[in-house]
Amino acid sequence: RESGKMLRTSFVPAVHANEANCDIQFGSIRRPTHTNTPADWAKFEICAHKWIDISDRGYGVALLNDCKYGYRVQGNVLDLNLLRSPGHPDPVADRAEHQFTYALYPHAGDHVAGGVMRAGYELNVPLRVLADRPGGGKLAPSVSWFRINAPEIVIETVKQAEDGEGLIVRLYESAGASTRAELACGFALAEAAEANLIEEEPKPLDVSGGGLRLEFRPFEIRTLRLKPRR
């Protein structure tokens, strides 16, 4: 319940890196770990979503979290803002009981080779297990409604189309590299099309092969409209 206080956590891994990779929506951005310029020196914090990572050629460490966005990276120090109690603009900000999760994730290689993006999603969207009564039918040992054969491509969204016509699947390239991938569906497709971000201007895609062959530019976002075969 204190005012004018800040709670932070800091880690000092044995990694030397001039830049940190920071998670943002639909990709990541590199930010310097030094204060060589006035602009860098003035940054008390930098913003990131699910993770921030520093890596050298063979090894790296990521700091993951599930709801905090204020980071500080100076040299090899990874620092996360956990709580703060300013008087303005909200005089009662953070003055309550909080529950949050953060974790250190060491890995081989850089943030791409080390699977940092996946680790961030696994922390923020953990696996849910639901128990139900047997229905008398048969299920395969494993079933997936959607599968992508390129680890750099993230299936970010699966939802009903806004007009009620089929499903929307939104994917993006997360590593900053041109990538070819194939999306496989666990059901037969009647139609498939690529649309814009507001699900309009559909361009038909070939579904004759059972899957969808896609090409991505670095950090490209693609929105697909799918209609299952009835």
Helix proportion? under 10%
Could you list the spans in which at least 5 consecutive residues all have pLDDT below 50?
none
The N- and C-terminal alpha carbons lie at a distance of 58 Å
Per the CATH scheme, the topology name of the largest domain is: Beta-galactosidase, Chain A, domain 5
**Helical run tally:** 2
Q: Would you identify the CATH architecture of the largest domain?
A: Distorted Sandwich
CATH level 4 superfamily of the largest domain: Golgi alpha-mannosidase II, domain 4
Overall mean pLDDT? 92
Task: Write a short abstract of this structure.
This protein is mostly beta strands. It is built from two helices and 17 strands.
Description:
This protein has 230 residues and is mostly beta strands. The chain has two domains: 6-124, Distorted Sandwich (Beta-galactosidase, Chain A, domain 5), CATH 2.70.98; 146-228, Immunoglobulin-like. Helices cover 6% and strands 43% of the residues. The mean pLDDT is 92.
Keywords:
230 residues; 5-stranded antiparallel β-sheet; single chain; mainly beta; Beta-galactosidase, Chain A, domain 5; 2 domains; Immunoglobulin-like; 6% helix
Blueprint (SSEs and pairs):
Blueprint lengths: L5 E6 L7 E6 L2 E6 L5 H4 L4 E2 L3 E5 L3 E7 L4 E5 L2 E8 L17 E7 L7 H9 L21 E3 L4 E8 L6 E7 L5 E7 L3 E7 L7 E2 L6 E6 L4 E8 L2
Antiparallel strand pairs: 1-8, 2-3, 2-5, 4-7, 5-6, 6-9, 7-8, 10-13, 11-12, 12-17, 13-16, 14-15, 14-17
